[in-house]
Amino acid sequence: MKKILIAISILLAGNTLYAQETVYPAPAQQSVIFLKNATIHVGNGNVIEHGTIGFSQGKITVVGGASTPVPADIKVFDLQGQHVYPGIIAPNTNLGLVEVEAVRATVDDNEVGEINPSVRSIVSYNTDSKVINTLRVNGVLLANIVPEGGILSGSSSVVQLDAWNWEDAAVRTDNGLHVYLPRLVVRSNPFGRGAGIGDDAIKSSLERIESLKKFFREAKAYLAEEKHEETNLKFEAVRRLFSKEEKLFIHCELVKEMLVATEFADEFGFDVVIVGGTDAWQIADLLKQKNIPVILNQPHSLPVSQDDDVDQPYKTPAMLQKAGVLFCIGNEGFWQQRNLAFNAGTAAAYGLSKEEALSAITLNAAKILGVDKITGSLEVGKDANMVVSAGDILDMRTNNITHAYIQGRELNLDNKQKQLYERYKYKYGLK
C-alpha cells in the first residue's frame, strides 16, 4: 500500500511539473552580443541606418554605423534591416498588483484609509503574473508599479519585466508617492471619483485636499525637529519627498485640479508630476514655467469636455511637445499596457514625429521616473534593454517583435495567449 501511495505521489508530482509555466527568467548575459545591419532608433531622436549595436554583461558597449568594427569570435546577428528600439516603459500601471479584476483575492493595489504614505507597491508586485509576458511581446520591458486607494496612496517603484521575485525585478524602488485628487467639478454621475454630486461634492473635495495639505504641513514641522519622543511612521514615510529623493505624482485631469497640483509644488517645494493631465494642453505654458512633467493617460478616449475637439486627446502630446513640456504617454490598468506603442503611434499621426512619439514611451518616461541614467535610450553605458521589430513598432500593422533583451538577457517571448493559439490550432487540425 505504501509503495502504491509513493507511486501516485510521484505521478502527481510529475504531472504538476509538466503543467508548470515554461517561460523562465533568462540567466545573466554571458557572451558579448552584436546586432548589425539594423535601423537603430536611439530613443533621443536620432536614427542610425545600417547600424551596429553591441552589449556585454548587460550594458551597451557600442552604438555606431555600418563601419563600426566588430570583434572576432563573438556572437553576431545580422538583422537584415530590422529595427532596434529601446524597451518601452509603462509609466503608470497596477501590473502585478491585479490579475483578475473580478476576483478580489487577485487584487492587491488598494489599501484601506485616506492617507497611506508608508504603503509600498513593490512588496506586493507579483512577478508570476500571466499578463507580464503579453506585454513583453509588444516591446514593454519596464513598468512603474503604482498603488491606488485614498488620497495619498503610497509609493511606486520601477521594475523590469523578467524576474523571479520583486527583489530581482526592482530597478528603482520608492521613486515617488502618489496622490489622487478628488474631482473639482459638478458631476451628474454619482459613481464618479469623490463623494456625492453637485456643490456638496466640490465642498467635500476641497476639504479632502485641505486635509492632505495639513498632513504635509505637520510632516514638515515633524521632520524639522532633530529628535522625537515618538516616531511617526507616516511622517517618516514622506521624508524623502521633502529632500527631493522622491517625486509627488498627482493624479488629476482638469485645469482646476492641476492648479491645485502646482500649489503643492509652490508651498512645499515638491518635485511634482501630473498623471492624467487631460487638460494639460490648456496650461502648457504654466507647466513649462514651473517645470512640471506630465504622464498622459489613455489617449484613445473621448475628451473630458463636450466643448473640446473630439480628437483632442490625440493632439495633446504634440501641443505639449511644442510648448516644451516634458511628457510621456501612459495607459491605465495592467493588460492595456500592451497597446502603449500604438498609443504613441496615434500621437505620431496627430503632430508628433515618429521619433518624438518613440521618446514619449521610452526616454521621456525614464526621465520622469528618474531612471534615465540607466535606461530609456540606446546609448553606451546604459542597460541593454531593447527590442527588435521586423517593422515599425508604432504601427500595429507592422509591429512584429522578433527579439527582446533586458539587461542583455534574451527573453522568451512565449505567453499564455500564444499557447492558447497553438492549442486550438492543434484541436482543429490547423497545425
UniProtKB/TrEMBL annotation:
It comes from the Bacteria. The keyword Hydrolase applies. Coiled coil: none annotated. The keyword Signal applies. SUPFAM superfamilies: Composite domain of metallo-dependent hydrolases (SSF51338), Metallo-dependent hydrolases (SSF51556). Gene3D superfamilies: Metal-dependent hydrolases. Residues 327-409 form the Amidohydrolase-related domain. Residues 1-19 form the signal peptide. It holds the Pfam family Amidohydro_1. Keywords: Hydrolase, Signal. This is Amidohydrolase.
